Amino acid sequence: MMIQISAGQGPAECRLGVAKLCEALKKEYGDIEVLSEKRGCERGCFDSVCLRTECK
């Protein structure tokens, strides 16, 4: 399964939310692979992240 998380045109808080959700998903599902990421202007933030995991 592929998942894309995007901040869209949102402010810095949205980009931070993308990063926090990505980290939470990686903790919950250890087999998640980051396919691509577009870093935001702020440190530790993402504009967009594309993830892949195996469905069980």
Keywords:
alpha+beta, 3 strands, 56 residues, elongated
Protein architecture, described:
By secondary structure, the protein is an alpha+beta fold. It is built from 1 helix and 3 strands; from the N terminus they run E-H-E-E. The chain has one helix spanning 12-28, and strands at 2-6, 33-39, 46-52. The model has no long low-confidence stretch (mean pLDDT 92).
Secondary structure blueprint with pairings:
Blueprint: E1 2-6, H1 12-28, E2 33-39, E3 46-52
Antiparallel strand pairs: 1-3, 2-3
Provide a concise account of the structure shown.
The chain is an alpha+beta fold and 56 residues long. The protein has one helix at residues 12-28; strands spanning 2-6, 33-39, 46-52. Strands 1-3-2 form a 3-stranded antiparallel beta sheet.
